[in-house]
Amino acid sequence: MAEAKITPRSEDYAQWYQDVIAHAELAEQAGVVKGCMVIRPHGYAIWEKMQQDLDRRFKATGHKNACFPLLIPMSFIAKEAEHVDGFAPELAIVTHAGGKELEEPYCIRPTSETIIGHFFSKWISSHRDLPMLINQWANVMRWELRTRIFLRTGEFLWQEGHTAHATHADAREEVYRMLDVYADFAREVMAMPTIRGVKTANERFAGAVETTCIEAFMQDGKALQAGTSHDLGQNFGKAFDVQFQDAEGKRDYVWQTSWGVSTRLVGALIMTHSDDDGLVLPPKMAPIHVAIVPIYRKDDERAAVLAAANKIAAELRDDGLVVEIDDREGMKPGAKYYEWERKGVPLRIEIGPRDLEAGTVMTKLRIAETDANGKPKKDVVPMEGIGVTVGRMLDDFQQALYDRALALREANTVSVDTWAEFEAVFADGASKFVWAHWDGTTETELAIKDATKATIRCIPLDGEGPAPQAGACIRTGKPSAQRVLFAKNY
Amino acid sequence: MAEAKITPRSEDYAQWYQDVIAHAELAEQAGVVKGCMVIRPHGYAIWEKMQQDLDRRFKATGHKNACFPLLIPMSFIAKEAEHVDGFAPELAIVTHAGGKELEEPYCIRPTSETIIGHFFSKWISSHRDLPMLINQWANVMRWELRTRIFLRTGEFLWQEGHTAHATHADAREEVYRMLDVYADFAREVMAMPTIRGVKTANERFAGAVETTCIEAFMQDGKALQAGTSHDLGQNFGKAFDVQFQDAEGKRDYVWQTSWGVSTRLVGALIMTHSDDDGLVLPPKMAPIHVAIVPIYRKDDERAAVLAAANKIAAELRDDGLVVEIDDREGMKPGAKYYEWERKGVPLRIEIGPRDLEAGTVMTKLRIAETDANGKPKKDVVPMEGIGVTVGRMLDDFQQALYDRALALREANTVSVDTWAEFEAVFADGASKFVWAHWDGTTETELAIKDATKATIRCIPLDGEGPAPQAGACIRTGKPSAQRVLFAKNY
Fold first, then answer.
1. Domain B288-393 part of CATH 3.40.50.800
2. What is the ipTM, given to two decimal places?
3. CA 20 to 30 Å from A208, out of A390, B29, B425, B431?
4. What's the pLDDT tens digit per position in A315-332?
5. How far apart are CA A317 and CA A321, in angstroms?
6. Percentage of chain B with pLDDT > 90?
């Protein structure tokens, strides 16, 4: 592994993605369990950081965590007509348990609207029980034909928010509140710009009346749906008889929402920031912030250099940073640099005998500007006050990654008005973010997909795309009220 | 629910346990999924506190979290002979997925030694890869005939540590390190005393060469196995061909351990501390530390009282406490007291107009000494410096609960030397902790169980039971090196 090279993006983007994951030891295909993955410690640590930050945001918006059964009676899935059509083909089915064939088989949850609807019907009877704001961190299973690590796997980890409200207006407010939570998290923590929008009817969650989403731009020009927030209307309320009595004594079905993000966010993070040298992590997503590589030849140098490294590490740890001192013997500094770079550690500190004399260290950000000789720039930083300096460098790096990702997206976003131009953008496997007019029909949407493999990622919310302006559909020439976002997608 | 009463322990202990859970809204039987439960927000918040504290302890001892597949190929389970015998009867089997019958069925993991053994064989090749110290937070499934909420459920949540070492001595050190982590956690956080010991061959984990455990005393005199730590020897290493090369180039199988605690700890917590008024939580396990109940009659009183309540809450929150101000309208203070008591909130603060004048509040611990009139004692506490006072009260309460649990266990622990006496202790459904001599054979162990329903909970570690002293087996009169712990068990 240490000897193998990461395939450059320009050569084979899909292989590059797999190589980045393998070299950073983030995860691997399970192999023995079809379409499933093993998330290794470095990958799981990134997911844990996502969980911690999101969980804080969910609790700050009034949600409480709970845990519902993994197994769902098959009859439940069938209760909401669109839901069963959407999910039945992907289910994994338990037919035997405890040495016997089951009277009614269970499926492993592909999502939990149905079983949670069942319990909401037991827990909700009055408007005083509303809103009910629940979240679950769980594993779910969707038996997909084509899988890709983190992006689409048979089993994946996620959170699923499920809420019930007294009015449709309350539910819609919740849908957009949580969409904003996701967009804020992506921007502030993942350094990943997203576009908030509404899905077309064709791309809607099975059972929802409206699906909203955040769409992120990947380096190959494709879009990745990074989170969804659904207005379920009263569909599941009616399917599971979740009724409440309002203050006037009138009974009605609750209005529900659901919203989720999953371990596919780890894939989105990789494809937003990483480069041909491997994983790149924004500091707020990095399980290790700083790797210190001590440099020495003789034993007495070793002791002094390690003492200084420990002193610096202690100061940085006091500031809440996770620091690794790489004191492995029998390994050259260059090999260590290479390894920490591939693992995405944002900042490396090199410290040797000459640095000790000068009272400085050498620092190298994971992505650095090049110097006059075309080599990645290293900075000389005084040991005095290093905590403040490193803190500032990491803050700046976090922001720089966001700016870089946004700039790349903007450079690959076009407004297109002719079909020829549209086809050209998506020719030969290419993709960009394309703002174009569409006549609003599923028929046209599918015709465009058939012709180009590009799909409508979303109808942007106000301010997320070009200012709404009427035009003519790129494909049919029929009237269109606004441009929508097209791209190939993961 | 609010009207129903909690069944007293003396009347029906099993019903009391269920009532405590229902009244505190901790969890409920799923019903529609056989033997499974739904963990409701208040119960899940307790589990989250357990997770956070344990996860910190695991990481501090060098372990990293990862995530392995939920599904395990059936052929894997069969690779370790004792393992398959132990677990096969309890498996839930997935036979169909993605609309097709599977060529090889999967089981839902009952535990993950097998699948993790498979990946260890891919990841471990050299002594430099050891020790490998992995933990997984996961759901597992064991199809049990008789289930009891939290204590024994078809699906449960747990953590499973899995480690590989170069020598048996290293592995055994790990086994006992993690047993101590569990015992420390139980004592320091759950305020629950435990006895550390070794299981008899008959009670050993299927596939282990030795199983160690912590055993806790429940209020009905029964024992609850609260955590286990297994020495797996080279059994799984051989079954999954996990070999490494040592520094001299010699190849050998790794020595493995596994260790786990589960949501059954929530059941243990309930049965250690709760009383006929409902749930009792040690402060370190309480999702809500303090409930403030404002008391007023008129509107102007309301504003002043709520302002003071908010000021106190802010001060306590600054100290890291979770505080609820119960300002619900149309509900009498007494009903509020009742509800917070049933939910196990350690401290209640009452504040009314007269308290405002005096610059004091009334406090009531969840379990309070009784005053001269036989009523639970309330304390008058000055608002000035209330953060310090409340912090001290909660610390003292944490310690008092531990002392109380230990005293109850000691009062119900006996050393017994005759069979008649032994039978008498366990007659009519009763149980105590009994130290008695045993001849070391499975035959005698089972004969004692048949006669009394009491089982050997553990052979105590040094210092955990009476000083080792030879004697005669309670049942057969044959020689015994030391007394072992007998009790009925959950």
1. yes
2. 0.96
3. B29
4. 999 999 999 999 999 899
5. 5
6. 93
Q: A301 near A357, Cβ under 8 Å?
A: no
Q: What is the CB neighbour count within 10 angstroms for residue A352? A: 19
Cβ–Cβ below 8 Å for B89 and A68: no
Q: Is a pLDDT exceeding 70 seen at residue B3?
A: no
pTM exceeds 0.95 for this model? yes
Nearest to A157 among B36, B67, B95 (CB): B67
Phi-psi bin for A285: left (phi > 0), alpha (psi -120 to 50), beta? alpha
Put simply, whether B70 touches A (Cβ < 8 Å) is yes
Q: Does B78 touch chain A (CB under 8 A)?
A: no
Percent of chain B clearing pLDDT 70 (strictly above): 99
Q: How many CB pairs under 8 A join A and B?
A: 139
CA distance B50 to chain A (A): 14
8 Å CB contact between B361 and B312: yes
For residue A2, the model assigns a pLDDT of: 47
Helices (H), B12-73: 13-23, 41-60
Residue A64 touches chain B, beta carbons under 8 Å: yes
Distance of alpha carbon B378 from alpha carbon B372, whole angstroms = 12
A241 in contact with chain B, both atoms CB, cutoff 8 A: no
A24 touches chain B (CB under 8 A): no
Q: Is residue A436 within 8 Å of A462, Cβ to Cβ?
A: no
In this structure, whether the domain defined by A288-396 belongs to CATH 3.40.50.800 is answered with yes
- For residue B427, pLDDT over 70 is answered with yes
Distance of alpha carbon A389 from its chain centroid, rounded? 30
pLDDT at B299: 86
User: Do the beta carbons of residue A483 and residue A457 sit within 8 Å?
Assistant: no
What does the block give as tokens for B473? 């087996």
What integer is the mean pLDDT of A114-130? Answer: 97
Delimit the domains of chain B by residue range.
13-273, 288-393, 414-487
Which of A71, A118, A262 to substitute to test the interface with B, most B CBs within 10 Å?
A71
Q: What is the pLDDT of residues B284-326, one digit of tens each?
A: 999 999 999 999 998 889 999 999 999 999 999 999 999 999 9
In CATH, the number for domain B13-273 is 3.30.930.10
> A40 in contact with B at a CB cutoff of 8 Å?
yes
User: What pLDDT score was predicted for residue A278?
Assistant: 97
Contact A44 B30 (CB under 8 A): no
Instruction: Please report residues of B whose CB lies closer than 8 A to that of A88.
Output: 99
Angle (deg, nearest 10), helices A299-318 and A386-411:
70
Asked if B69 is an interface residue toward chain A (Cβ–Cβ < 8 A), one would say: yes
Q: Do B76 and A32 touch (CB under 8 A)?
A: yes
pLDDT at A1 over 60: no
Whether chain B has a CB inside 8 Å of the CB on A116: the answer is no
Flag whether residue B331 sits within 8 Å of chain A, measured between CB atoms.
no
Question: Which residues of chain B lie closer than 8 angstroms to A98, CB-CB?
Answer: 89-92, 143-145
- Average pLDDT for residues A461-481, to the nearest whole number? 95
List, for residues A254-266, the tens digit of each pLDDT value: 999 999 999 999 9
Query: Using CA atoms, how far apart are residues B482 and B418, in angstroms rounded to an integer?
Result: 15
Out of 3.40.50.12710, 3.40.309.10, 3.30.450.40, 3.30.110.30, the CATH code matching A414-487 is 3.30.110.30
The single residue listed with the structure tokens 């900075």 is A379
